Amino acid sequence: MVELSAALRRRGLRTIVDVSDPEATAGQSQLDELRRIIQNDCDGFILYLTKNVTDSACVWNVEVPAALHSWDTGSVAFHPFFRNVSPSGAKLMVPHGARVAAIGGVDASEAGDDSSLLQAAHSQMANDALGAALLRWAADEEPLTIGIRTRESGTHPPTDLLLDWIQDFDSLALGDGIAGRSLRDALADTARVLGKVGTRFVRVSGPAHLSAGIAVGYTFRGPTGYRLEVTQGVSVWGAEGPKASADMRIVTQQIDPSQPDVLLIVGLSRPELIRDADTAAAALRLPVGGRVTVEPAAGASRDAVRSDEHARGIINDLTTQLMNSRARWGTRGTLHIFIASPLGFAVLLGHALNGFAPLALYEPSALGGYVRTIELT
């Protein structure tokens, strides 16, 4: 159940996981509060159905009937997840089993302890729940707002979806590459579900790690048909529009003709990044065939990117130089990206990197040096 909750959070859905039976310690007032939450505060209800679910008087006698009532009235989406009991077996579980089985859902009753099968089932359930929620929230012309949360940072501005990646980035900082693959897959699933329900206008906000911003921007890149905006401070930056003069110093250099990859270092806000990224590339033994660095002509600073017009101008010059250099060097391998910039710039950069994949993104490691976070193809 914890893994299913993580799959939901990675796709932007806020979850309340009930793994206890409060009837053992609570009175009628708490049971009434559970009914109120389900009926008034939830968009969806996932029943993680096991053979012993009927042993929980609270779940089976309070929560399930409250959720079914709300499903009948159209106020809550009801999603059965058949963990170790099949839909046909669920029909025998009175009094709600027949109704639950008739709704359908995800059948993982044959998955056993196979982690890959369970992961696929959790992803399917999370995608189904996301699709149902998006259909309920469908807006006409307003953008769907997507918040990215990769670190504990107090309150987050209200958004339609909140990609809660805090635990995953904590794991990535310790070198857990599995978390990066989980995020990449969840992000791709989210984009597919959004496309299926007709959402093509998204607005992203942080605060978040820059590699997460690049990943989100890349997922909603231009050729996918998405209109993308990002909140930067009190402004909203768009991926499309006029371009201002970049005023950047872009240096390209072929390092080793026998190596396939390109190292891209974007040091807009921290002057030491270029040194740190070169050190990290050597420590990680990246097969660097060519190197591209970008820094402001006037020197790196927190105010190096003045506006979205300026950001688009920088990105235009950067991608043009990158494309020409890769063609000249014949390097078609991975593009390794180290970046220090505003989050808005990172999101717009990701949006513009179509055709440069595969991409490998990096962040400082909790153990020192840098660690790869997300790989994009």
Account of the 3D structure:
- The protein has 377 residues and is an alpha/beta fold.
- The protein folds into 3 domains: 14-128; 134-238, no CATH class; 248-376, Rossmann fold, CATH 3.40.50.
- The protein is built from 12 helices and 14 strands.
- It has helices spanning 2-10, 28-41, 57-73, 87-90, 97-103, 115-137, 166-173, 177-196, 210-219, 273-283, 308-329, 343-351; strands at residues 44-49, 77-82, 106-107, 144-149, 161-164, 201-205, 227-232, 235-238, 248-254, 261-267, 288-296, 335-340, 359-364, 370-376.
- A 6-stranded mixed β-sheet has the order 9-11-10-12-13-14, sandwiched between helices. Strands 5-4-6-7-8 form a 5-stranded mixed β-sheet, with helices on one face.
- Strand 6 (201-205), helix 9 (210-219) and strand 7 form a beta-alpha-beta unit.
- Helix 2 packs parallel to helix 3 (57-73), helix 6 (115-137) packs parallel to helix 8 and helix 7 runs antiparallel to helix 8.
- The radius of gyration is 24 Å and the shape is elongated.
- The protein starts with a helix and ends with a strand.
- The model has no long low-confidence stretch (mean pLDDT 93).
Sum up the structure in keywords:
12 helices; alpha/beta; 14 strands; Rossmann fold; 6-stranded mixed sheet; 41% helix
Shape: elongated
Radius of gyration: 24 Å
Q: Strand tally, please?
A: 14
Which class of the largest domain in CATH terms? Alpha Beta
Question: Helices and strands, in N-to-C order?
Answer: HHEHEHHEHEEHHEHEEEEHEHEHEE
In order across it, which strands form the biggest sheet? 9-11-10-12-13-14
N→C terminal distance: 30 Å
Helix content: 40-55%
